[in-house]
Every structure is written in C-alpha cells, then in structure tokens.
Amino acid sequence: MKLAHKLQPGSDACPIPALQHCDREVERICGSAAFQRAPVMRRLLKFLAAETLAGRGDDLKAYGVAVDGLGKGPDFDAQVDSYPRVQVGRLRRMIETFYIEKGEGDCSVRVSIPNGSYRVHWTPASQSDAMPPLGTGRPVGHSAIHGPFSRKWLMVLTGIVAVVAAIALLIHVFAPSKAPAVQNATPVRQSQMLVPPPVMDVEPVATVEGADKVLAQRIDRILGDALHRTWTFNVRTVGMSVPSTREAAGEYRLTGTLVGAERKLLYLTLWNHRNTTQIWSRRLELAKVTSFVDALGPSINAIMSPFGVIGSRERRALAGNFSPGFPCMMRYSEYYMGNAAALAAPVKACLDLTLKQDPGNAPAIAAKMMTRLREAAEHPEQVANVRSEALVLARRAMDADPYSADASMAMALAAYINNMCDLGNASATEALDRNPYDGYAYARAGLYMFQCGDAGYEATLRRAWELDNTLPAVTAMPMVIGMSERGEGEAALRFALRIPVAEGFRKAPYELTMAAAYAAADDIEAARRHWAQAARAAAAPPNAPPAVVLKRILMLPRLTERTERYLRSRGLFR
Q1: CA quadruple 89, 94, 95, 101: dihedral sign
Q2: Is the separation of the CB atoms in 204 and 239 below 8 Å?
Q3: Are 128 and 111 a contacting pair, CB within 8 Å?
Q4: DSSP assignment, residue 200?
Q5: Phi and psi at residue 395, to the nearest 5°
Q6: Which region, left, alpha or beta, applies to residue 132 given φ > 0 means left and ψ of -120 to 50 means alpha?
Q7: Where is average pLDDT lowest: 18-32, 141-155, 160-174, 214-228?
Q8: Quick one: which of 446, 439, 441, 457 has its CA closest to 404?
Q9: Four-point Cα dihedral 304, 307, 311, 314, nearest 10
Q10: d(CA 425, CA 282)
Q11: Over the stretch 14-42, which tens digit does the pLDDT of each residue have?
Q12: Are residues 460 and 446 in contact, defined by beta-carbon separation less than 8 angstroms?
C-alpha cells in the first residue's frame, strides 16, 4: 500500500524537501529480500510509517501497535506483555542492517525508529554519515579529505581503532580477577555427536515455621524465569519427591526453603547428584527487600554464569574435552576469559563442528564471532573483513534465536566495531532484557555505553557489580570517576576497596583504579603510589607521560582521555 495519500503537509515527521520520497523509501525497504521473508516486519513498518505520516506518530502506544500493527487480539495486555517493544526492536535492527547491506537509494531520505519510540523518522541522506553503509561510508568531518584513496585509508584506520578497542573489551578488560587455569589444550574429543549440557532439577521452594506460601511461589516464578536463560545447563522443574533412579535425576539439584513469617529467611542449596554432595548454598534475608528480582540476582548469577558454581565444576570435569556442543562451549569460555592462546585452534575447530551439527546454536555463533575478533587483534590486515563478518555472524545468531541474550550481545559488539553506537546500545539493552542476571553482560554493555557517550553507563555498571563483585577492576573506573565528580569521593574509595586484588596482566588496571579511587578521596600520596605501581605493571618507560601509561593500560580511547583529565584535575601529576 502506498503511503503518500496519508501525508500531512508541513509534518515534521519527514523532511519537507523530501516529502514525496518518504513512502518510496518505505516501499524500497519492504521490497528487500530480508523484509520479503518477514511479512510481520513489513506490516509493522508500513503501519508505523502510515501513522507517523498521518500525524499520529507521537500518540502511538504499545496496545495500538500490538493490535493494529501486529495483529494481536483486543484482549492483549500491554502491561505484562513486551511483544510490541521486542518486535519494534527487531524492526529497528532490520532497518539498520538494510542500510548496511543496501546503502541509500535514489530517494533523498533515510528511515529510522529512535530508541524508546514507535514514531518513524525520515532524515535527509546527507545527515546519515554517522552510520554509513559498510565499505562505502565516510567518517564525520570527511569534507576535508579529498579523493578515494584518502577516504579509503581513513576508513580502514578508523576500523582498526574500533576493532582494537573492541578487542580490549574482550581480552584486556573482561579477563576475570582470577582467570580459570588453562586445562589440557590438546584436543581429546570424546564424541563426534553433540554433547548436551547437564540438567539441573529445580524443586519448588518449601515453607517452614509459618513462612509465606505466596512469597515462596513468587520466588519459584522468579527462579523459573531466570535459570533457563543460560547455556550452562538445562533446567527441569520437579516436585518434592526425588526421582527413583539416578538415571532419572539431573546432574544437579537446586532446593530452596523459606523460613519464618517475620524474618523471611531464604536458604538456597545446590546439590551434585553425581555424588550426592552439597556444593553451594546461600542465605538471603527478604523481610526488608523491595525487589525480590534484585535480591535474588547475585545468587542466580552465581548459579547460571559460565564462570559460576556449575560452570566452574563442569569446566574442570571436561578438561581437554573438545567434543561438539557443551564441552566445546566450556573450552571456549576458558579461552575467552583466560586469554589462552593455546586453545585458539582447537576451540575454532570444535565451534565449526558444533555449528555443522547444530546450525541454529546462537551462543555458538556468537562465540565464533568472538574468536574471529581475537584473530583480528593479531592480524590487522583482516580488520575490514572482520568488521563485515562480525555483522553477518551477529545477524545469523539473531535469526537463529531472536530471544537469545548471547545473540543480542553479539549484535551490540558487531555494531560497536562498525561505529554504530545507536544499534550497539539498543542491542546491548535487549541483551540485558533477555538475561538480566548476567554480571559480565552488564559490564560489557556499560563499557560499550560509556564509549558511545550514553548517560546510562553508570547505572548499568553499578548493576553489574551488584550481580558479580569479582568483575575486573577496570569496569569500575567510569563509576569511580563519576562518583568523584559528584563529590562522592569517600564512597568511591569504599567501593574500590571491595574490588579483588589482581596480579599478572590484570595488576595494572587494578592499580590504576585504586589510584583513581584514592584521588577521589583526596589521598593524593596513596594515589601516586598506586599510579607508580600501575606504570610498573604496565612496563611503561621510566618517566613516561601519563597519556602513554594510560594507553598501555586502558586501550579504550574515551576512557583513556577521561581518566587522564580526571587524574590531572585531582592533582595526581606534578
């Protein structure tokens, strides 16, 4: 259906010089192969465009989008169902991908749907240089660069800087304070068939001593909603009775007991059914809790993280096992977090075998993208190809499982290294929506947001530390600086003192973070001592300028620049 007849003269939804092109651009997008395969997305885009051009864009609400744009019934409940928001997010990504692959047409406008809105925007194509089609775009400020040769090499240089920054996030920043020891790097493939993850049976929370049964059921729902969001294990909800045979039981079992009507103590216990031993437990006081999701978050993260209780045990048990499926993903996590170069080749091989047998495995597709980025760190000549390949792999992961947090985070990183901050931030936000219990995901998203100038970075990083207090020290640096600039220096130091002490290649970021924290608390002498230790740990030349030391440690351009300004403002450098 053509949309021009609904256009309201003078509407600011579409730039005045290009009013006649707005509907043509929508039709061009809907005619692409990707949209031809997605009738729901075609219908949704045409609906949103028509409403916007009719002057009703600012009035669009979730219920109307769901019923009129997506075909939901009149009984749709927008208060509890996020379907329209998720679908518009998917549409937003498809439009971004369309311009990456197809570029701008003969129309003079470009379509976009800003985050947090259902209203379609049309912008003049000349204003879209910030997110150019891959391989044809120009950096902002390109008017001073003349000739295709100069533009080509400036674009390559920009891509190298972006990929190097992304590699810093992957390798330097996210290596844990205590990285898992690298096990046998020699492949000992025990199976040619896909090996599934272990099974964890989850019992309903029991109530004793007058505990609130309704609260116990609420905890059951939170655990049930959360624990399936990981590839570390499969979840099976069972009754209170233990299966009659060992074969019928899962490898792990999670039990919970809610005690007392007033104090509301929750005891969570994880059992290993292989040898009937208790391997983890936690006690939570829930009497004064305002958000049970937030209160349970750290415990859920400890259970379900690939580096949590179960993941760590399985990684040890599968040492040297590169079988496709779960063992391969365990080896990948070891390679990813431990900066273990010896695992690169066998991990790449087992991921290829995994995807050959299970092409729709979104976490494995995302893992393959991460391994390609690491390869680019060692081979800069591959940067241009890796930028393009990262977007393809991220899109493949999203197509395989649109609801996978791993796929959304892969898209965030792919967008980030292609200088597409809007898409990167939107995809990172979706990843956190799909798994709000992953501390490392929050940390990655927070640093991506900081690099892109998104004001929400601090709240995101704060939540990361609430979920996992063993994160790398450098993920706390933006928070420490922000707290200090608000006059919360003592609080910044108290927070930093909780960070685990780090050694080896993680020592320099740790010492730098402590220098910033002591500077925030006006203890300049202590700050200078930690700065000196950071410079030594980074192997910086004697008397090296602060900028040289910081680039060796942080590698992230925006964080490096802001940290230097901050430390200078606190009088750290004589």
Answers
A1: positive
A2: yes
A3: no
A4: E
A5: -65, -40
A6: beta
A7: 141-155
A8: 441
A9: 180
A10: 34
A11: 544 455 568 788 888 988 888 887 888 88
A12: yes
- For 392-410, the pLDDT digits (tens) are 999 999 999 988 999 999 9
Tell me, what's the pLDDT at 159? 52
Give the C-alpha separation, 215 to 217, whole Å: 5
**Cβ-contact 153, 286 below 8 angstroms:** no
Using the predicted structure, report yes or no on whether residue 6 has a pLDDT greater than 60: no
For the stretch 372-393, pLDDT in tens is 887 776 666 677 778 888 999 9
Contact (Cβ atoms closer than 8 angstroms) between residue 496 and residue 476: yes
Contacts of residue 141, Cβ cutoff 8 Å, sequence gap at least 6: none
DSSP class of residue 240 equals: S
Overall residue count recorded for the chain in this entry: 574
> Is 206 in contact with 265 (CB distance < 8 Å)?
no
C-beta separation of 28 from 132 below 8 A:
no
Other C-beta atoms lying within 10 Å of the C-beta of residue 405: 24
With a CB cutoff of 8 Å and minimum separation 6, the contacts of 408 are 398, 427, 428, 430, 431, 434
SS3 assignment, position 286: coil
CB count within 10 Å of CB 197 equals: 19
The owner of tokens 């599934």 is 196
Task: Tell me the pairing of strands 252-259 and 234-237.
Answer: unpaired
pLDDT tens-digit readout, 461-493: 999 999 998 888 889 999 999 999 999 999 999
Residues 6+ apart with CB under 8 A from 422: 96, 114, 115, 131
- Residues 570 and 573: their CA atoms lie apart, in Å, by 8
Nearest to 172 by CA among 537, 517, 544: 537
As a whole number of angstroms, the distance between CA 476 and CA 173 comes to 11
Q: For residue 336, what are its two tokens?
A: 């990813």
Work out whether the CA dihedral 233, 237, 240, 245 comes out positive or negative: negative
**How far is it, in rounded angstroms, from Cα 489 to Cα 380?**
41
Token pair for residue 92?
A: 């937003």
Burial class of residue 319 in the structure, from the number of CB atoms within 10 Å of its CB (0-12 exposed, 13-18 middle, 19+ buried):
middle
Find out whether 426 and 93 touch, Cβ atoms under 8 Å. Answer: yes
Least confidently predicted of 159-168, 218-227, 530-539: 159-168
In single-letter form, the type of residue at position 46 comes to K
CA distances from 241 to 199, 490, 510, 533 (A): 17, 51, 48, 57
State the DSSP string of 522-549: T-HHHHHHHHHHHHHHTTPPTT--HHHH
